[in-house]
Amino acid sequence: PEMALLRGTATSGPLILAGLNADGTSVSWFERAWPFFSWAIFLFGAGILTGTAYYRGRDAHWYGWLAVVAYCLHQSEEHAFDVRGWRYAFVPYFNLGPIATVFDDVCADRLDGNDQDYAVEVGCPLDPKLTLYVNVVLIWIGFGGCMIAATLAPNRFLFAGSLNWGTAVVNGLVGHVVPAVLTSSYNPGFVQSFFMVPLGLYVIRRTDRPGLCIMYGIFLHAALIGGVKVVFRFRTSEALTMTAVMLFAGLVVPLVVSNYLYENNTKRRKTPYDK
After folding, report:
1. By the 8 A CB rule, do 161 and 61 touch?
2. Which of 13, 131, 200, 205 could form a disulfide with 165 if both were Cys (CB 3.0 to 4.6 A apart)?
3. pTM confidence score
4. pLDDT > 90: what percent of the chain?
């Protein structure tokens, strides 16, 4: 089969968007357009946060919402237009990059053209449908949901915002900054990551559990890798599988961890040995 869609060129992304998903379905309008909604969320959120910082200052709640806004900008560079002006450049970059070797056990047959049931015109492990559900569920619903919960019950759930920064740091550092340094080349998402990583480190260092934030970021990406492998190994629904995985790892887990820390701290304050 024709593998031109996998080449890392300016036309790779548009060709992928004009083709098929791994399950044989056509790429939908929303699978093509969602990065521009992320761009809109970034612009709107940046305006709100700027005004809030001016009038009320920057606190942990402010930095938690900043993770949502900053990551939407990250998505825009990856999946809308990168700094070279290339459209949807991250998916072909990732599928051809060194990190994709993690998925060799589930992608080898397809990339060799031996799997006639799947569409081999698109890359593995990422296609537009899977990319949509990972990003929208994790950031819009996961990051955003954590901060809505933190707004309603800040004592219980505010730490979830710091855990989200752990995800951002791990993704930006391992997925973008380190590969750019090792290869002395640009990758889609690197420029934003260059600023997001040190900002994230600053935020999590302000907490008393920076190591936990990084560990959570590693866990989130391990869950993501596992979910993708389930999709391709067992040919489960990309939408259902990745929605379930991202909701659990990106919303349920950080809220549970944050609530546990709150409950634990509350119990400790009630003991006569707590000074």
Report:
1. yes
2. 200
3. 0.92
4. 84
